[in-house]
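User: Second chain of the day. Same drill as before.
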Amino acid sequence: MLRSVGVVTMCVVAVLAAAVAAIGFRAHGAEIAAATFQGAVPALALRFAVTPLSAPFCALLAILTTAVALWCMRRGAPGEPLLIALFTAAMLLVLVARSVALFFIAWEAMSLVSAFLVAAHHERRGVRRATFTYLVVAQTGALCVLVALTLLAMAAGDTSFAGIAAHAARLSPGLRDTVFVFALLGFGSKAGLMPLHFWLPRAHPVAPASASAMLSGAMLKVALYGLLVVTLELAAPGPSWWGLALVAIGTVSAVGGVLYALVDHDLKRLLAYHSVENVGIIVIGIGVALLARSAGSSALAGLALVAALFHTINHGLFKALLFLGAGTVNEVEGTVDLERLGGLWGELVWTAPFFLIGCAAITGLPPFNGFASEWLTFQSLVGGLSGGGLTVTFVFVAAIAGLALTGGLAAACFVKVFGVVFLGASRRIDARPAVRERLDASTTGVALLAGLCIVLGVVPMLAVGPLAGVVGKTLGLVVLPPPALPVLPVTLALLPLAGALLCVVMAARRSIRFVPTWTCGSPVSAAAQYTATAFSKPLRTVFAFVLLPERQRRYEMGSSRWLPERISYRTESRYLVDEGARRFAAVILRFARRFRLVQSGSLRMYLAYALAALIVAVGLAR
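Assistant: Same format as last time:
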């Protein structure tokens, strides 16, 4: 009963989000369908409105909510759908909020409900620690967002976004830059930008798969929407250094996220690091748009913003698909540890091909949707090289190199993931018989996302056309997508297919010899298969200057917690952030041990402390 109520509520919220998206795409002005609830305090007025910029995010929210609702009909805990419905409603409220008070209330509701989702298995110590980390980051980020919006409202003398936007051109440069820094800290921490990403790989492994799909697929994008509202509307126009900063931060996040993912062997934590990577790619597009807008290059600004919005939708689709697939794997095998998985295609006959589509999409292979948006991002970076100075050229060249490196490492990472999890023989210790997966509601939800990844890759203009209209209304210009985009994904996909067909024809004309697998004379068994650690070892060696030396650790299955080194049995990488945290903790503990001398345990000493404090207080009072 509880599951059914939650699923129905999710569907209702999805319909509302779809209706808001339809209104936003058809809007001709900055705001339509506005409603204001004025209370006793004018500064706390609640204003609702639909804007063209919120339309793509509402459309993505509607799609993901529908797919997750279908998945939750057969999988997950019975209470998850209702919490996810509340979470989705809070995100929708953020997207239609057009006043400071309503935006902050909706933002806090979104954060608190998502914290309950992360803490679903609160009986585990690792889950409680991850939830605490998430709450600290969320509340610190919320404070930064509140400061940014409050500064804007005080300068404009109005708490509505329309009033703030009307006053944006008269902001002083110092106040404008201060608002940008606070907005970047607040929205960037929620979106998972480096170095404020550390809550993501802690929260995702412990959250249910359906919650992870909405956290990564939707909530991170809502944070990026907030950043867009501030930089394109409330504090616009910004100086060129805003764009340069975002391009640099996005490049670091993209490369760093994929490197961390490459050496991780927890499937859900690996996907969380790829969220950091793809958010970085989106922020690169936003940065190019801001830089081009400040330089007066409207065509480049429009192209870059279309690329950012298109990749926002694409990442939401394939990341939700991969998280739901990981949830299915976890329910079947009881673990998401890559070292214990293998040979699942024979059992998950529907999830496996859909998961393969998600892997191809996230690595940017044509003709899937990830390729089209990343290609547009490349085009915007290349277009920005011609009109900038030495600093802009250096940053853009670094971004192009970083984006290319990110694509290659992502491909290697997901070859590892899919090959280890779904191909080969099962590494299962028990001998329970495999049960073939049936086509039901949960697989239908995953199929919906996989189908959209294919459709938006083969026909990218289905999304690029409406997004170009949104960008045109937001920036006040006409956006013309590249003419090669409609046919490029299919053309590039046909080239390797033609080569593969040629190889098949040539092999058929020759005599093919089939021999057993050679394992140096030993019996062929599941233990002889490549492991995730062995696959990533060469790349981990190449990037050893980023990834610190390995330490022996043991992963406690299901708790996302590393146990002490003395009981380890497996090798993993220790990352820079973890090493820095360890050293900081060691310094604090050393200071605490020395300061413990003041706790002598003597009652007379404590009375002397109290007397000394009294004397100091009396002296200060005089």
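Confidence is low (pLDDT under 50) at residues 549-575.

User: Great, on to the next one.
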